[in-house]
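Repro case for the chain-ordering regression, as requested:
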Amino acid sequence: MPRKAVIAGIGHTVFGRLEGRSVRDLEIEAIRMAVADAGFARADIDGLITDPGPAQPVIEGIEPHYLGLGRQLGIDPDFVGTEVLGGASSVSSVQRAVMAIEAGLCSVCLCVYGDTALSASGSFSYGRGAEAVFGFFGATGLHALAAQRHMARYGTRPEHLAEVAMAARANALRTPHAQLKRPLDLDGYLASRMLAEPLRRADCCLISDGAAAVVVCAADRLADLATPAINVLAMGQAHSLSTIANADHFDQTPAARCGPATLARAGITAADVDVALLYDCFTIVVLMQLEAYGFCQPGESGPFVTGGRIAPGGELALNPTGGLMAEGYGGGMLHVIEAVRQLRGTAGARQIAGARLALVSGHGLGMNTHASLVLGG
Amino acid sequence: MNDTSGTIAESAADPFLDASREGRLLAAECRACLHLFLPFGPVCPRCWSINIGQRELSGAGEVATFTVYRQSYHPDFSVPYVLALIALVEGPRMISNVIDCAPELVRIGMPVTVRFVPRGDLVLPLFAPDSSPTRNPEPQGENP
Ligand SMILES: [Zn+2]
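-- result from build under test --
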C-alpha cells in the first residue's frame, strides 16, 4: 500500500550574525523546534537529510555532513543523505524525504539547513573553475552575465531589478525575525555599490548565520501531529550541466523546464498560485523565474514587476518574508517554512488571506540546478 | 578562498593553453560528428564519440554577454575589467576578457578578434573589438 508524505513540522533559529555559535548548535536548535512543532519526539525520527550551507563542507575528510550531525543527535536512522544542489538543496532535501517516505524507506524524516557563513572567515569570491584566470569570480559576476543578456534582449532596466530588491526590503518589515529591516527606495538602490554590472550590492542576497529544519512524515502518522499537515502536491527538478557550451545558458535557468513541468504535475498554472516562494539569490533570478513559471511572458518580467506588483499588497504574493535578500540566507529552507506558515495561516502580519497553494523554488550553483515544490494546505 | 592556483595548474596541461602560448586558438573537434567544442575533453558532448582531434579557429567572434567588474575579488585583477562570454564564429563559446576597449563601450553582439596576452605563466586568448566601438555602438534596449 503506497504511503503519502506530508510536511508536519518547521523550526528555525534567528538569522544574522550569530558570533560564537557553531553550525551544529544552530542545526540542533532548529531540529528540536521542528520536531516539537510536528508533535514528534527524538525516537520517532528515522530519516535525516542535511543541506550544509555555502560555508560548510559537504564532506570533511571521508565524513559526509549527515554523519557528523547524526552522531551528535545520537540517532540510527533508516535513511540519510546530504544534498549537493547548491541553492536548490533545501527544496531537493524535502523532495528526497518525500520520495524516501513514499517508497517506504522511512516514516519521519528531518531536512536540515545550517550555516555560519557570516561569522566564518573567508569569502564567497571564489574563482569559477579554470575560468578564474580571466577574473571570473563569485556568483555575482556569473549572474551579471545573465542580467546583461536580459537587458539587451528585452530592454530590462535597473529600475526593474530595483523593484525586486525594494519589494524584498518592504516585505521584511513585516517579518519579526528578518535580518535586514531597512527600507530601500529607488535612489537608495541606484546609489548601491556596483559589483559586476549591472548587479549592485542591493541586487544580492544576504549572507547569514542560522539554521532551519522541516519534518516530513508519512500521512499515516498524522494522528501524532500537533498541527494540520501540509500536502506536497507536486515536485520537479531540471538541471543544466552543459553550462556555457549551451547557447541559451545565460538566457534562461533550468526553471524554464522545471517550472512548467512541476505546475502541470500539480494540475495548476501560475495563476493558481496564492503565494510564491522563489529563490532570490539575485534580483535577476527572480525576474527569470517569473517568466519561467509563467507568471508573465518571456521577456516581460521587468514591466510585470513595475509599480509595486510584487511588493506587499501587490498582485502577486512573492516572498512575503523578504526572502534571501532581507529575511536571511536560509539556503531555501526558510522559503519552505514560509510556504508552510502561509498555508497554515500562521504568518502573522504578512499572512496572505486564504492562501491554499504555495510554490517553492530552489536555484543553485552556476545557474546549473533547479528544484520546485507545489504545496497545498 | 581567493585562490586560482589550483585551477591554473590544472589547466596548464590543456592543449588549448599550449596552443595559446604559440598564438593559436584551438578547439576540440569530434572526428565522428565534426562538432567543435571547448573546453577540451575526452568525449564529444554532442555524440559521445571518443575520437577527438583538434582544429585551429580563426579567432573571430562576438560578445555573447559580458559584465564589467567594479568590485575587485583578487589582487591580480584590478577593476574595472570586462569579463565576457565570447561566441566564436566556428561555434564554440568561451569565457574571456574584452581588452583595448573602454568598459562602457562594450556591447552584446560586438565583433571581436583574439589577442594573445601573457598573464603570469600563461598566454591567454583575450578579445579586442574589430573596429573602434564608438563609431557604431549597438543601442541598448529601451523599455518604458
Ligand atoms: Zn561528436
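Ordering looks correct now. The two ends of chain B are 42 Å apart (CA to CA).
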